[in-house]
Amino acid sequence: MYSTVRENDGVGRRTTVPAATGSDRIFALDVLRGIAILGTLATNTWLFTSGLPGTGQPDRLGTFSNWLPNGKFLGLLTIMFGIGLEIQRQAALRAGKRWPGKYPWRAALLFLDGFLNYIFVVQFDVLRAYAVVGLLVAFLLLTSEKVQWWLIGAFLTAHLGWMTWQAVGGARETLAQGLPSAPDLGSTTSYWDSVMANASGLGSGFGPGSEFFTILLMGAGLFLVGAKLYRRGIFTDAKRRLRWWLIAIGFGVALPLDHLLSQTEVFPAELSGFARYGTAPVVALGILASVAEFYHRRGKIGLPGRLLSCVGRMALSCYLLQNVLGVLAQYTVLRMPVFEQLGNTLTTYLAYALISATLIVFSWLWLRRFSRGPFELAWNWGYRKLARE
User: Fold this and answer.
1) How far apart are CA 116 and CA 127, in angstroms?
2) In this predicted model, what pLDDT tens digit does every residue of 296-333 receive, in sequence order?
3) 16 in helix, strand or coil?
4) At how many degrees (to 10) do helices 302-313 and 315-331 cross?
5) 295 Cβ contact list (under 8 Å, min separation 6)
6) Which of 281, 274, 279, 262 is nearest to 166 (CA)?
7) Rg (CA), the chain
8) Alpha helices in 95-126 (DSSP H)
């Protein structure tokens, strides 16, 4: 559902970009964002419930449920950020503006959001890394298609090389020379203890051994992959074969391999990083392609898709809110004696269901009156003030 238009790319060249002419693409994009947000919550909820009194270790169902979303929706969220960056670039070109123009202000605000989220809410924040990667990729999108293919290969090769070094222990030995590490979620006695731990562990939160650093390399490649898939028309009639190839590779090859690498009784635990940051993003491509194919065939969004799209349209608000709700639950509701009897798996399931329902209902009600989520409105206001627009 695209038509191609010729636009100036902001540096004196002419480039072909797709212009949307239908709405099913928008359905798929909003739904995918919603799936990515609720999917990351499915992983993070296990962190909110870990270490709580009486929960203990997860059973077999808990172990499987912990593995299933692990890394897949982080990968999907990363790819969707790359698609969003390309959408912003194309919008700027169609408006006759230079790219990246004032995008650095957007990246700065995103980094600030992530920094505050890291200190006052949770350590497993991705916004800081996305802000840095987004700023880099915004300029890399000015390069030719061929150069971008080389960049994708270079970033992903560097990412796999870094993961290999970590797996063999070289990185951990280097990092053992003094970078502080904050305690696990649930191990502190109060919320402010956790905040102080986050602040004291700020150096390790940006260090080479952190997820922040890992996402920098992986994210640069996946941002470019997402942008390229969008330009190539992954949501169009012409790319149905591409969608099915991604589905086959994602679910037929990457998913079984991801499960195998996660089996610590088969492989050393050090290789689990290859599952979360290696095979899981490939599974994410399969998820993206399957949702795109579903809505391309269906032609309408339906009630489940409409609810997911509400979360997707408020992706920043729902991402931050799910972390806030998780921390609140961790230090209040989940400490009630009844949860000591339920066990880790059931406690996690209940927490996930309640937080997800809250996000869905809140986003649906909010968007009935406003066009953007609360954090999106504040973020857009801040951007316009800084960029003087």
Assistant:
1) 10
2) 888 788 899 999 999 999 999 999 999 999 999 988 88
3) strand
4) 90
5) 24, 27, 28, 31, 301, 305
6) 274
7) 21
8) 103-120
Give the integer Cα–Cα distance in Å for 18 and 92.
Answer: 13
Helix (H, G, I), strand (E, B) or coil at 4: strand
Q: What are the sequence ranges of the domains in the chain? A: 2-387
- The one-letter code for the residue type at 47 is L
- Look at the pTM and tell me if it is higher than 0.85: yes
Q: What are φ and ψ of residue 363, in 5° steps?
A: -65, -40
The letter for the amino acid at 149 is W
Distance, C-alpha 66 to centroid of its chain: 17
Q: Enumerate the β-bridge partners of residue 20.
A: 2
Q: Are 353 and 347 in contact (CB under 8 A)?
A: no
Residue 205 and residue 125: Cα distance in Å, rounded?
A: 9
Residue type, 240: R
User: What is the b/e burial string over 235-262, where b = at least 16 CB atoms within 10 angstroms of the residue's CB?
Assistant: bbeebeebbeebbebbbeebbebbeebb
Q: Would the CA dihedral through 116, 121, 127, 129 be positive or negative? A: positive
The closest alpha carbon to 359, from 6, 45, 9, belongs to: 45
Asked if 70 and 347 touch (Cβ cutoff 8 Å), the reply is no
Query: Taking a C-beta distance cutoff of 8 angstroms, is the pair 137, 151 a contact?
Result: no
- Strand-pairing partners, residue 8, are 14
Bridge-based pairing of strands 14-20 and 2-8 is: antiparallel
CB 289 within 8 A of CB 79: no
Q: What gap in Å lies between CA 59 and CA 116, rounded to an integer?
A: 34
**pLDDT (tens digit per residue) in 169-203:** 654 444 333 333 333 444 446 788 888 888 887 87
Q: Is the peptide bond before 100 cis (omega within 30 degrees of 0)?
A: yes
**What backbone phi and psi angles, to 5 degrees, belong to 185?**
-60, 140
Token code pair at residue 9? 């790319």
In the structure encoding, which two tokens stand for residue 11, read together? 């540096």
Query: If you count DSSP H runs as helices and E runs as strands, how many of each does the chain have, helices first?
Result: 19, 2
Question: Distance (Å, rounded) from C-alpha 318 to C-alpha 360?
Answer: 9
CA distances for 122 relative to 118, 182, 226, angstroms? 5, 11, 27
